[in-house]
């Protein structure tokens, strides 16, 4: 599987290639040999290796992803692999193991969500799944501060811009995936699913929904809210400008591309640096559009967000 910008279909020059060899079945010593061969091949081809934390570029086993949701054994690495498996991954090669694991993870979230099946509220949103997605979003924010400390501010500017845009986009797509259980299912089908506590049809719906990239997920939902067209255009333009910075291969005065420049920019120069300030302005445009859509629009989408995404 691949994650990150490649999984989101936003891969640009300089992007890391975040990958994992997913194993669903009996452990075999040969699995590590395969993972090492993948790593060597990608390095030979000149791809940038995954980050130093060791979350990607290795093996992932279905048992941990499916059974260790919450509790002390659900490490940051396991949570990251599980949530990104759902929200920004795509499979290379056969889909068998990938589909089984995604569907089994979804089955756990849905079957154990008593409030989803027995709750009397107006909306039907899988809170167990949504709470884990929210936890991951907050973990990314906390880990940003952690990396700032342990790395001595190395790479701060680029990671800051990514947190404001691509990381936030992942969380938004997770919100919309959960909201889709209420917003997108036909009325009669939805009524029957919840009346009969039919987990599998909901698993099928979410599996299909998760086939969208985060940007596709956002577009798929927002196209249904015509009154939000202005804010939607603002949001997508800001994100396009952000990807444009990362994809820009022109050379600045110091000989670096804008992406490399941001990655090496010292934190004591942030407030006066025009490249970072431009990226920051783009992130503010994105933030303002998100607030307009999800918090101030007085639509069913904003009501869902306030009900489930805030408290």
At a glance:
The chain has 311 residues and is mainly alpha-helical. Helices cover 63% and strands 3% of the residues. Strands 1-2 form a two-stranded parallel ribbon.
Q: How many angstroms does the end-to-end distance come to?
A: 34 Å
Rg, Å, rounded: 20 Å
Task: Encode the helix/strand succession as letters.
Answer: HEHEHHHHHHHHHHHHH
How helical, in percent, are the residues?
A: 55-70%
Number of domains: 1
Low-confidence stretches: none
The tally of beta strands, per DSSP, is 2
Strand content: under 5%
The count of helical stretches stands at 15
Strand order of the largest sheet: 1-2
Overall geometric form: globular
**How would you characterize the largest beta sheet?**
2 strands, parallel
Average pLDDT, rounded to a whole number, is 94
What is the SS-derived class?
A: mainly alpha
Structure description:
It is built from 15 helices and 2 strands. The chain has helices at residues 4-7, 30-44, 62-67, 76-87, 96-111, 114-118, 127-150, 156-183, 187-195, 199-209, 214-222, 229-247, 258-264, 274-294, 300-310, and strands at 20-23, 58-61. Helix 8 packs parallel to helix 14. It has 311 residues and is an all-alpha fold. Helices cover 63% and strands 3% of the residues. The protein has a two-stranded parallel ribbon. The longest helix is centred in the middle third of the chain and has 28 residues, at 156-183. It has one domain.
């Amino acid at each position: 599987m691949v994650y990150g910008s490649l999984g989101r279909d936003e891969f640009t020059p300089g992007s890391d290639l975040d990958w994992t060899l997913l194993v669903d079945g009996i452990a075999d010593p040969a699995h590590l040999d395969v993972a090492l061969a993948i790593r060597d091949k990608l390095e030979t081809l000149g791809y940038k290796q995954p980050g130093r934390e060791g979350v990607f570029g290795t093996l992932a086993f279905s048992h941990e992803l499916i059974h260790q949701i919450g509790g002390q054994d659900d490490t940051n690495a396991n949570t990251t692999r599980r949530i990104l498996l759902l929200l920004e991954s795509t499979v290379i090669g056969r889909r068998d193991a990938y589909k089984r694991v995604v569907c089994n993870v979804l089955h756990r979230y849905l079957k154990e969500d008593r409030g989803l099946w027995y709750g009397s509220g107006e909306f039907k949103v899988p809170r167990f799944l949504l709470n884990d997605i929210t936890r991951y979003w907050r973990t990314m924010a906390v880990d940003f501060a952690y990396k700032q400390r342990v790395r001595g501010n190395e790479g701060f500017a680029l990671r800051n811009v990514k947190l404001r845009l691509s990381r936030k986009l992942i969380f938004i797509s997770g919100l919309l995936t959960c909201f889709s259980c209420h917003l997108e299912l036909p009325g009669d089908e939805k009524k029957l699913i919840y009346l009969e506590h039919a987990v599998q049809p909901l698993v099928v719906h979410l599996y299909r929904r998760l086939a969208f990239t985060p940007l596709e997920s956002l577009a798929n939902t927002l196209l249904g809210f015509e009154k939000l067209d202005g804010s939607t255009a603002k949001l997508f333009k800001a994100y396009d400008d952000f990807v444009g910075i990362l994809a820009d291969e022109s050379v600045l005065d110091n000989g670096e591309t804008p992406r490399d420049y941001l990655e090496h920019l010292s934190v004591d120069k942030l407030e006066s640096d025009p490249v970072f300030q431009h990226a920051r302005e783009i992130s503010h445009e994105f933030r303002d559009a998100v607030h307009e859509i999800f918090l101030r629009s007085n639509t069913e989408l904003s009501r869902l967000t306030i009900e489930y995404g805030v408290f």
